[in-house]
Automatic annotation (TrEMBL):
PANTHER family membership: REGULATORY PROTEIN RECX FAMILY PROTEIN
Subcellular location(s) of the protein: Cytoplasm
Name of the protein in its database record: Regulatory protein RecX
Upper classification of the organism: unclassified sequences, metagenomes, organismal metagenomes
Residue ranges annotated for the RecX second three-helical domain, each copy included: 93-134
InterPro entries given in the database record: RecX_HTH_1st, RecX_HTH_2nd, Regulatory_RecX, WH-like_DNA-bd_sf
């Protein structure tokens, strides 16, 4: 930025673009109209350079950047003008942003296509753009990711019945945005171990814990209640 000293001694911070646009390299008298125009341009370039700084720190969609600048009290007209300019210069590109975003989520998360789509929509990405960038998340990749999640949860299970575990896995994957058809297929084709041993271990563990407080029929009722919560019905 540059400092512009007015005749009354007031120092105004301004930008190179404003100096060139108003021929301020040459000493000249600035009337009220000139000053108002300079001030207006200053506000715009302040918005523009703030936007540029924000997207250099971390990539953003146009909507995200618009909302951030709005929270900083810039005028809507200045915000839209700045964003239009950044798009023309290639600094702001929803297609490139969305493409990188999808790739990152595929590589680093357990998100399904539905969840990624919802997040892109929240970021203001156009549906036509979403359709294009989501092509990289093929059904094959989705199924491989589902299989990995299902097998991991099977290995980690130590206290749930197969029926309860399948419901939990299914619900978790739906919440993550995967398709129910692919989820059911993965569960049906996975090897779930015999849960009789788990049932016996859970029964003994629950019985030992509850027998310190209950006895007789009340104990049996409490045991059945706890076992049912884990998907085991006696």
């Amino acid at each position: 930025m540059y400092e512009l000293e007015l005749d009354n001694g007031v120092i105004v911070d301004t930008y190179e673009e404003v100096i060139l646009a108003h021929d301020l390299l040459i000493t000249k008298n600035i009337n009220d109209i000139d000053y108002n125009s300079i001030e207006k341009d200053n506000k715009y370039y302040d918005c523009y350079y703030r936007a540029l700084k924000l997207i250099k720190v971390s990539a953003k969609s146009r909507k995200e950047l618009y909302l951030k600048l709005g929270s900083l009290d810039y005028e809507n007209s200045d915000i839209n003008r700045a964003l239009d300019q950044l798009e023309k210069q290639g600094y702001l590109n929803d297609m490139a942003y969305a493409n990188s975003y999808v790739n990152l989520k595929i590589m680093t998360t357990c998100y399904g296509p539905g969840k990624i789509r919802r997040e892109l929509e929240q970021k203001g990405i156009a549906q036509s753009v979403i359709e294009k960038v989501m092509l990289q998340y093929t059904r094959q990749i989705q199924r491989e990711k589902i299989d990995k999640i299902v097998n991991k949860q099977i290995r980690a299970n130590h206290n749930k019945s197969n029926a309860l575990l399948k419901r939990k896995i299914g619900n978790d994957l739906v919440m993550q945005g995967f398709y129910r058809e692919d989820i059911n297929s993965a569960i049906d084709n996975s090897n779930f171990s015999d849960d009789k041993l788990i049932m016996q271990k859970e029964y003994e563990k629950i019985k030992n814990r509850l027998s310190k407080k209950y006895s007789g029929q009340e104990l049996e009722y409490k045991i059945r209640e706890k076992m049912a919560q884990k998907g085991f019905y006696m």
